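Researcher: Quick test of sequence recovery. Tokens follow.
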């Protein structure tokens, strides 16, 4: 299944209890404020200090709320939105900066993609010459398997499946992860080839329409939980005193729950994955 950054941000917001989204009840006269009579139940200044996100709109069209009048349902932002809010648009109100939520989701995706994101294999052909070691490029993080071909034409001889532990393994050489070939396999021959099948790293989500591919719906809980932990850690680092303590406690709770969910996901790992460093 797939999910967009917009859906993911909404999911994370709901996990941390911080989400309100609606369409303006009237067109605004300028870009300084949003009108929605559905906000009238809240008292004056209730949303001051919150963050307003207007969509569709320019990238990161996020502004700080500086005033709210209950009788009219109008809140104002500083600086102005990049566009005049219309009834055909949608606005979001967040207590926590939605930009931080996007950062938290991306960092959580980097931390978790080997646990829950749908496998997207990538075959990389590299040339090797009488080598006992090969240093993979930085984007090769998790290897599914390695095949070897002596022939240089890619057609005259088949690739041979290499077995980790017998033919190759990871070796840390001065802080760099390298593929070490064993004597049972022997050094590579001149202009031979390795076919490295690995999991592609996730792309960073920046626009609301950017898509992440997830293994199944249940795994969204793990993504949102870890993102919530990261969000609370970011909020704690920018706070002091009692507020910092509260955010730190919330981050600890989310981390404990994420550990349980990670354990469930780990049981689904295929047996032929090899993470850089030897996991």
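Model:
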């Amino acid at each position: 299944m797939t999910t967009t950054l917009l859906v993911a941000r909404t999911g994370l917001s709901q996990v941390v209890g911080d989400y309100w989204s609606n369409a303006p009840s009237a067109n605004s006269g300028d870009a300084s404020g949003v009108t929605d009579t559905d906000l009238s139940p809240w008292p004056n200044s209730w949303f001051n200090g919150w963050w307003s996100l207007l969509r569709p709109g320019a990238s990161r069209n996020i502004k700080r709320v500086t005033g709210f009048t209950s009788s009219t349902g109008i809140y104002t932002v500083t600086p102005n939105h990049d566009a005049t809010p219309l009834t055909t648009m949608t606005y979001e109100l967040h207590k926590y900066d939605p930009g931080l939520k996007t950062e938290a989701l991306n960092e959580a995706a980097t931390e978790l993609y080997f646990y829950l994101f749908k496998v997207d294999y990538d075959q990389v052909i590299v040339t090797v010459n009488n080598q006992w070691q090969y240093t993979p490029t930085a984007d090769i993080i998790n290897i599914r398997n390695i095949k070897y071909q002596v022939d240089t034409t890619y057609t005259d001889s088949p690739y041979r499946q290499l077995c980790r532990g017998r033919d190759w393994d990871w070796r840390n050489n001065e802080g760099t992860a390298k593929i070490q070939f064993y004597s049972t396999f022997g050094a590579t021959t001149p202009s031979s080839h390795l076919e490295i099948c690995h999991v592609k790293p996730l792309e960073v989500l920046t626009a609301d329409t950017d898509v992440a591919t997830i293994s199944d719906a249940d795994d969204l809980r793990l993504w949102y939980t870890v993102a919530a932990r990261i969000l609370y850690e970011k909020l704690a680092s920018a706070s002091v005193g009692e507020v910092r303590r509260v955010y730190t406690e919330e981050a600890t709770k989310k981390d404990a729950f994420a550990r349980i969910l990670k354990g469930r996901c780990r049981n689904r790992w295929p047996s032929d994955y090899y993470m850089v460093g030897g996991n």
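The chain is about 25% helix and 30% strand.
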